[in-house]
Amino acid sequence: MDGDRDPRRTSRVRGLPRVLALAAAIAVPFLPAALLTGGAPAVATEGAHPGFVGTTTCAGCHTVEAAAWRTSDHARAMAAATPATVLGDFSGVSVTDGHHTATFRRNGDRFVIRTDGPGGTVADFPVSETFGVDPLQQYLVLFPDGRRQALPWAWDSRPREEGGQRWFHLMPQEALRAGDPLHWTGRDQNWNFMCASCHSTGVRRGYDAARGRYDTTWTEISVGCESCHGPGAAHVAWAQAGTRVEIAHRGLAVALRDRSGGAWRIVRGDPRGIARWDGPPRQSTAAQVETCAPCHARARPIVADPLPGARFLDTHAPLLLERGEYRADGQIQGEVFEWGSFAQSRMQRAGVVCADCHDPHSGRMRAEGNAVCAQCHLPARFEAPDHHRHAPGSAGARCVACHMPAVTYMGVDRRRDHAFSIPRPDVAAAIGAPDTCTSCHAGRTQAWAAAQLASWHGPPRGGPHPALAILAGRAGARQTDAALAAIATDRTHPAILRATAVTLLPMPPSQASAGAIGATLLDPEPLVRASALRALEGLDPRNRLHAIRFLTDEFRLVRIEAARALAPVPLNALPEAARPAFARAWDELLASERVAAERPEAQVNIAGLLAQRGDQAGAEAAYRAALARDSAFLPALVNQASFEEARGRPEAAEALLRRAVAAHPQAAEPLYALALLQVRRGQIGEATDILATTSRLAPHEPRYAYTHALALHRQGRVDAAIAVLARQAGHRDSLIAAATFERDRGRLGEAERYARAVLALDPQDREAAAMLAEIARRSSR
């Protein structure tokens, strides 16, 4: 399950843009389990797709490539469940992990798993397809409504001596029950949306919203030639033409072969010992990386069923370096695949492509061990003990040991970081992240590792590491605007890092933030421009007209972000000449959200956009659609409540929020929204009680305590208010409020103490300085 849509993650908190950063979804009604237990599994027909000819046709001429492909993980990405493809032990064994239980048996050529299904009923589920092969294999179940669901029990296909040849649960720590989005029957384990486009070729998802079912088809069940090269019919016609009339790219939709005649070469005498491209510019650099990117990146599709050959940012919105998915220094953390780390690398900026290291047909490395790196890095310099400081031939002497740290996903799947970064244990210590040195030298500290590196190679060069600003920006720390602005506008940094820095700029913008947004709007990198347009959402709609010029940007992602930024701007406020471009980009924006129409968060996004355009009926319909897909979907309930209040229906808003609280009793967000609603309705006593509960549920969220204190103060309960604020020692607004409350009741010494605490957080805080000056004047009277 590749792309942005892999549910096999450890965290249960997942969200898509414009919602409340809560769990995402796909909802299709389940049929009774009894309907799923008998008969052979239905087999989806391989659908006709214009121009696709299939790998068998390609293999007729390209025998060497086809032979290599047959040994690849791509060739075995998915297959019909047969004795030849099923690796797991279906001999009648039963397994349990304390939370979940399953039995695996075989009936002739039919493979069945007995476990808890829809509604929690234990039943037999026939396996329709295998999913993957190494280092684990999963299994799919086809439901009568066209859904394929990924079972949570996987077969560890590694050799027994490596701990393999066993069944294991992918989320053993979670007692998942039917109805949970992460339960194997739930929306986040749905193959049709989450997985199909990257595990099969020529996929059409075929979701029918009216019937709530799928008619998903493919031209090839696994990842075949045309997944990368595009539809092959025109190429076959070219090959079969007796005259061999020359046509563009020999009829292929994607030009992957580099015909420039250049090569990577290490220049004799170059002290760096690193290869440079020698010859005319490579012709296919972008095409090669962008062919791999859609399935090797965490990314949101913005067009339906994209075909190979399109530019990545015309079909997908990639995940940036978000908290929980990447460490602040860019190390992989969540299951983000390879593109996001490779996009940070010097390799990518130098023009290296995936196929420089990986054979694109077999998927194997171009060479074994350090030899693959030695293609471009002079062994005499880099494979020497005075560089790597480990015994020759040892594990520590491998290039990947230091420059490609690995993280294990799905229990057994160890994947390497593709940023090719230089170890910085000092930075890792500062941001609370692991580092590659002490990951091996477990008994040593990061300070020891940093000292060792400094003694060998000298102190780190350059200024402050960007990770420090990214960490501060994620935490919402004050006075980070200048550092983030410097990263965003420094074009020597990779685009994905600069785009991330833009998203962390504080709002409302300071002078530094505003300057950075203005500069990045004109950035040559479309990913940076798109993030700058998102940053405009923090501005008043009247100040977003800068987005107009980007409605006709050459990249779809930029155009839809321009339309999103302009969503609340009345049509009559747009220049008449820009209105047709806005209409086209607006249609692209809505179409991008409707790609995921079966998911409630997409409907919430659509509702929010339509509400901004004043389409109340359309917004209401979209909220209804979201709740039809998941009646307890928290972002839909909370956002619709805000929508109902805005159109003068506070009773409807309250009903939705109370429904949200009942469905999510441990969630603070709906309680907080309900409390604010009651404050606005003048029911301050009830609001105060609700805020007290909110603070208990989320004690580390200072804004809840801050609002609780304001409510207490409004009721005249000043001592109680200050007691709440005093517990928020690092929260600037709480300290300012405490200082204000103490000043107003004449306790100037206490007011001064709180004001000085604010200045300790930020010596440039003007409000705190002014308060201290006022306290000094009043004290001298």
TrEMBL record:
UniProt cross-references to Pfam families, sorted A to Z: Cytochrome_C554 (PF13435), Paired_CXXCH_1 (PF09699), TPR_19 (PF14559)
Domain Doubled CXXCH motif as annotated: residue spans: 354-378
Species of origin: Neoroseomonas eburnea
Annotated protein name in UniProt: Tetratricopeptide repeat protein
Record-linked InterPro entries: Cyt_c-552/4 (IPR023155), Multihaem_cyt_sf (IPR036280), Multiheme_Cytochr_ET (IPR051829), Paired_CXXCH_1 (IPR010177), TPR-like_helical_dom_sf (IPR011990), TPR_rpt (IPR019734)
Gene3D superfamilies found in the cross-reference section: Flavocytochrome C3, Chain A, Tetratricopeptide repeat domain
Domain Cytochrome c-552/4: 192-230
GO molecular function terms noted in the UniProt entry: oxidoreductase activity
Entry keywords, A to Z: Signal
Transmembrane segments: none
Source species, domain of life: Bacteria
